[in-house]
Write a structure and sequence with these properties.
Layout (H helix, E strand, L loop, with lengths): L8 E2 L5 E6 L13 H20 L2 E7 L13 E11 L3 E11 L6 E14 L11 E2 L3 H20 L6
Parallel strand pairs: 1-7
Antiparallel strand pairs: 2-4, 3-6, 4-5, 5-6
């Protein structure tokens, strides 16, 4: 779960929430926010969570496919939440959840989720070890186990069996 010489960090230390009102420039002519706008927010928040954990620059290595469960409209408050789910030697999986709130009605809708693998980089841009993740709660353990399964599937898909 990481380099033994580094002190473990709690998942709670990496949590981040970003909230942003969607404006006309974020959307198409029908008032639907572009998927790319949402994906950029997801990538940004995942990077912040990974940087909080590693205290290093990071780069996105992989993003699981995103499904857009419901549309986001101009005027919605989009809230993007992220936390580190699992850590390996130089990389981390960050889980991200996106919700849209209609500020007039108060209705909140889960619009999408994603998992991103981020790699920590040293001053030369080379992957570098990150602190292990201290898994403390049942929910964190569930997320860690699910992240291990996703990683195994990804490695098998590219012909690498090691975990």
């Amino acid at each position: 779960m990481g380099d033994a010489s580094l002190h473990p960090k709690r998942a709670a230390e990496s949590r981040v929430t970003l909230a942003q009102v969607m404006l006309p420039e974020d959307a198409n002519s029908q008032g639907h926010v572009h998927g790319g706008t949402i994906m950029k927010l997801v990538d940004t928040v995942a990077a912040v969570a990974a940087m909080r954990h590693a205290r290093r620059r990071v780069a996105t290595v992989y993003m699981d496919g995103m499904s857009f469960l419901s549309p986001v409209f101009v005027g919605n408050l989009v809230t993007v939440k992220a936390a580190v789910n699992a850590v390996w030697r130089t990389s981390m999986e960050v889980g991200v959840r996106v919700e849209a709130e209609d500020l007039l009605s108060g209705r909140v809708t889960h619009t999408s989720s994603a998992y991103l693998d981020m790699v920590a980089l040293d001053e030369r841009g080379t992957p570098t070890p990150v602190p292990p993740l201290a898994v403390e709660t049942d929910e964190e353990r569930r997320r860690w186990e699910a992240a291990q399964e996703r990683r195994t599937r990804r490695l098998r898909a590219v012909g690498r069996e090691e975990v």
